[in-house]
Amino acid sequence: MHGQVSNELEVDVPASKVWEIYGTTKLPQLTQEALKDFVEKVEIVGDGGVGSTVKIVFVPGVIPGITWYKKKYTKVDNENRVKETEDVEGGYLDLGFTLYRVRFEIIEKDKDSSIIKSTVEYDLKDEAAANASIISIAPYAKLAQAAKEQLIKTKA
Q: Domain named Bet v I/Major latex protein: which ranges (predicted)?
Protein backbone atom coordinates (compact mmCIF):
# COMPACT_ATOMS: atom_id res chain seq x y z
CA MET A 1 0.00 0.00 0.00
CA HIS A 2 1.35 3.40 -0.99
CA GLY A 3 0.11 6.80 0.12
CA GLN A 4 0.93 10.46 0.39
CA VAL A 5 -0.35 13.47 2.31
CA SER A 6 0.80 17.07 2.02
CA ASN A 7 0.29 20.58 3.33
CA GLU A 8 1.14 24.00 1.92
CA LEU A 9 1.54 27.19 3.90
CA GLU A 10 2.15 30.61 2.37
CA VAL A 11 4.73 32.76 4.12
CA ASP A 12 5.30 36.48 3.49
CA VAL A 13 9.06 35.95 3.64
CA PRO A 14 11.51 35.29 0.78
CA ALA A 15 12.21 31.62 0.07
CA SER A 16 15.91 32.13 0.83
CA LYS A 17 15.03 33.18 4.41
CA VAL A 18 12.73 30.19 4.92
CA TRP A 19 15.48 27.90 3.63
CA GLU A 20 17.79 29.30 6.34
CA ILE A 21 15.64 27.26 8.74
CA TYR A 22 14.59 24.29 6.61
CA GLY A 23 17.96 23.78 4.95
CA THR A 24 19.99 23.73 8.17
CA THR A 25 20.13 22.15 11.61
CA LYS A 26 17.75 24.88 12.82
CA LEU A 27 14.85 22.69 11.68
CA PRO A 28 15.37 19.91 14.27
CA GLN A 29 15.81 22.59 16.96
CA LEU A 30 12.56 24.25 15.89
CA THR A 31 10.87 20.83 15.90
CA GLN A 32 11.58 20.38 19.59
CA GLU A 33 10.37 23.90 20.42
CA ALA A 34 7.28 23.96 18.19
CA LEU A 35 6.11 20.42 18.89
CA LYS A 36 6.89 20.27 22.61
CA ASP A 37 3.48 18.69 23.27
CA PHE A 38 4.53 15.77 21.03
CA VAL A 39 8.33 15.71 21.06
CA GLU A 40 10.32 15.03 24.21
CA LYS A 41 13.82 15.12 22.72
CA VAL A 42 15.59 15.68 19.39
CA GLU A 43 19.17 14.54 18.78
CA ILE A 44 20.97 15.42 15.55
CA VAL A 45 24.19 13.80 14.40
CA GLY A 46 25.89 15.62 11.55
CA ASP A 47 25.73 19.04 9.94
CA GLY A 48 22.20 18.71 8.53
CA GLY A 49 23.44 17.57 5.14
CA VAL A 50 22.89 14.25 3.37
CA GLY A 51 23.74 11.39 5.72
CA SER A 52 23.00 13.32 8.91
CA THR A 53 20.59 11.61 11.27
CA VAL A 54 17.95 12.88 13.65
CA LYS A 55 16.51 10.83 16.50
CA ILE A 56 13.14 12.01 17.74
CA VAL A 57 11.75 10.78 21.06
CA PHE A 58 8.03 11.36 21.55
CA VAL A 59 6.09 12.21 24.65
CA PRO A 60 4.67 8.83 25.77
CA GLY A 61 1.26 8.02 24.29
CA VAL A 62 1.23 10.74 21.63
CA ILE A 63 1.46 8.35 18.67
CA PRO A 64 0.04 4.89 19.39
CA GLY A 65 2.80 2.29 19.10
CA ILE A 66 5.61 4.78 18.47
CA THR A 67 7.96 6.10 21.15
CA TRP A 68 10.90 7.14 18.97
CA TYR A 69 12.38 6.95 15.50
CA LYS A 70 15.55 7.83 13.69
CA LYS A 71 15.52 9.50 10.31
CA LYS A 72 18.31 10.16 7.85
CA TYR A 73 18.66 13.09 5.48
CA THR A 74 18.66 11.52 2.02
CA LYS A 75 18.40 14.67 -0.07
CA VAL A 76 19.42 18.25 0.57
CA ASP A 77 19.10 20.36 -2.57
CA ASN A 78 20.07 23.92 -1.68
CA GLU A 79 19.50 25.20 -5.21
CA ASN A 80 15.89 23.97 -5.45
CA ARG A 81 15.31 24.20 -1.69
CA VAL A 82 14.24 20.59 -1.18
CA LYS A 83 15.08 18.40 1.83
CA GLU A 84 14.05 14.77 2.27
CA THR A 85 14.34 12.43 5.21
CA GLU A 86 13.61 8.73 5.48
CA ASP A 87 13.05 6.73 8.62
CA VAL A 88 15.88 4.26 9.19
CA GLU A 89 15.09 2.88 12.67
CA GLY A 90 12.12 2.48 14.99
CA GLY A 91 8.83 4.31 14.69
CA TYR A 92 6.80 3.66 11.60
CA LEU A 93 9.19 0.94 10.43
CA ASP A 94 8.25 -1.07 13.54
CA LEU A 95 4.58 -0.85 12.53
CA GLY A 96 4.92 -2.41 9.07
CA PHE A 97 5.93 0.62 7.02
CA THR A 98 8.66 -0.09 4.50
CA LEU A 99 9.05 3.60 3.64
CA TYR A 100 8.28 6.76 5.58
CA ARG A 101 9.68 9.78 3.74
CA VAL A 102 9.18 13.44 4.58
CA ARG A 103 9.88 16.06 1.93
CA PHE A 104 10.09 19.78 2.57
CA GLU A 105 9.98 22.12 -0.41
CA ILE A 106 10.38 25.86 -0.12
CA ILE A 107 8.73 27.30 -3.22
CA GLU A 108 9.39 30.88 -4.25
CA LYS A 109 6.16 32.71 -5.05
CA ASP A 110 7.76 36.08 -5.65
CA LYS A 111 10.70 37.98 -4.18
CA ASP A 112 8.90 38.60 -0.89
CA SER A 113 6.83 35.46 -0.36
CA SER A 114 7.09 31.69 -0.54
CA ILE A 115 5.29 28.45 0.20
CA ILE A 116 6.38 25.79 2.65
CA LYS A 117 5.21 22.48 1.22
CA SER A 118 5.47 19.45 3.50
CA THR A 119 4.78 15.96 2.14
CA VAL A 120 4.69 12.56 3.83
CA GLU A 121 5.07 9.62 1.47
CA TYR A 122 4.79 6.06 2.72
CA ASP A 123 4.72 2.42 1.73
CA LEU A 124 3.08 -0.10 3.99
CA LYS A 125 2.99 -3.89 3.99
CA ASP A 126 -0.47 -5.19 3.07
CA GLU A 127 -0.85 -7.01 6.38
CA ALA A 128 -0.27 -3.72 8.24
CA ALA A 129 -2.65 -1.62 6.09
CA ALA A 130 -4.75 -0.63 9.13
CA ASN A 131 -1.75 1.37 10.39
CA ALA A 132 -2.17 3.85 7.55
CA SER A 133 -4.68 5.62 9.79
CA ILE A 134 -1.87 6.93 12.02
CA ILE A 135 -0.28 8.91 9.18
CA SER A 136 -0.81 12.62 9.71
CA ILE A 137 0.54 15.77 8.10
CA ALA A 138 -0.57 17.79 11.16
CA PRO A 139 2.83 17.88 12.95
CA TYR A 140 4.54 19.15 9.80
CA ALA A 141 1.81 21.75 9.26
CA LYS A 142 2.32 22.90 12.86
CA LEU A 143 6.09 23.01 12.27
CA ALA A 144 5.58 25.15 9.15
CA GLN A 145 3.33 27.51 11.12
CA ALA A 146 6.01 27.82 13.83
CA ALA A 147 8.64 28.57 11.19
CA LYS A 148 6.35 31.20 9.68
CA GLU A 149 5.77 32.86 13.04
CA GLN A 150 9.49 32.85 13.84
CA LEU A 151 10.40 34.29 10.45
CA ILE A 152 7.80 37.05 10.65
CA LYS A 153 8.92 37.93 14.18
CA THR A 154 12.57 38.25 13.12
CA LYS A 155 11.55 40.17 9.98
CA ALA A 156 9.83 42.90 12.01
A: 2-131
Annotated catalytic, 36?
Answer: no
Question: Given 55, 70, 71, 83, which residue is catalytic?
Answer: 83
List the domain boundaries for the chain: 2-155
In CATH, the number for domain 2-155 is: 3.30.530.20
Torsion of CA 145, 33, 48, 136, to 10 degrees: -50
* The overall pTM is greater than 0.90: yes
- Euclidean distance between CA atoms 75 and 60, whole angstroms: 30
**Helices and strands per DSSP (H, E), number in the chain:** 3, 7
